[in-house]
Design brief:
The chain has helices at residues 2-13, 40-46, 60-71, 73-76, 91-101, 114-119, 155-162, and strands spanning 29-31, 37-39, 48-53, 81-87, 107-109, 122-124, 127-128, 131-135, 141-146. The chain has 168 residues and is α/β, with parallel strands linked by helices. The strands form 3 sheets. A 5-stranded mixed beta sheet has the order 5-4-3-8-9.
Length: 168
């Protein structure tokens, strides 16, 4: 299992756009699946921004993770977080995932995978490596957990990293 995950991470990194080891920035503005412009920079000023990437709009494990996190929102809300979901695909199919999971945060279609590519998270030319990303205020990656499967979701590691129970 770990060997397969390592192979997937390695394969995903082959598609990385940043070979100069420069800081990777998440875009300062994005468009949601509902067509709304989101100023990510302003979001990071007000709360901790967490990006959940999903492999594809048809990934059942990815949808299960969003539902898991949704059921834990009271715990996550203790530490002033907001979520964005990054998915390959067209707005309509990405928005359907939002409706299916009832995840109450914006979904960002990455139809051309340019965001995933800039983040070094292409699993293959049609899919994003499932990951959880915590952004710094300057839109660089503060923390990242890569990989997901039906028995490992990564949300426990995120909760531990955020240390919401000790949030002041």
């Amino acid at each position: 299992m770990q060997k397969t995950l390592l192979m997937l991470v390695t394969f995903g990194l082959l598609f990385s756009a940043n070979s100069k080891n420069e800081p990777v920035l998440f875009p300062s503005t994005v468009i949601s699946s509902q067509g709304n412009k989101i100023n990510v920079g302003k979001l990071t000023e007000a709360s901790t921004v967490i990006i959940i990437t999903i492999k594809s709009p048809f990934c059942p494990v990815c949808q299960a993770q969003l539902i898991r996190i949704r059921t834990q929102l009271n715990s996550f809300n203790k530490c002033n977080v907001t979520f964005l979901v990054l998915s390959p695909g067209a707005s309509k199919e990405v928005h359907q995932v939002k409706l299916n999971t009832e995840f109450p945060f914006p979904f960002i279609p990455d139809g051309d995978l340019s965001i995933a590519k800039a983040l070094g998270l292409l699993l293959n030319p049609q899919q994003i490596l499932p990951s959880i990303i915590v952004l710094n205020d300057n839109l660089t990656i503060k923390w990242i957990q890569k990989g997901r499967n039906s028995i490992y979701f990564g949300d426990d590691e995120l909760y531990d990293y955020l240390d919401c129970d000790n949030w002041i």
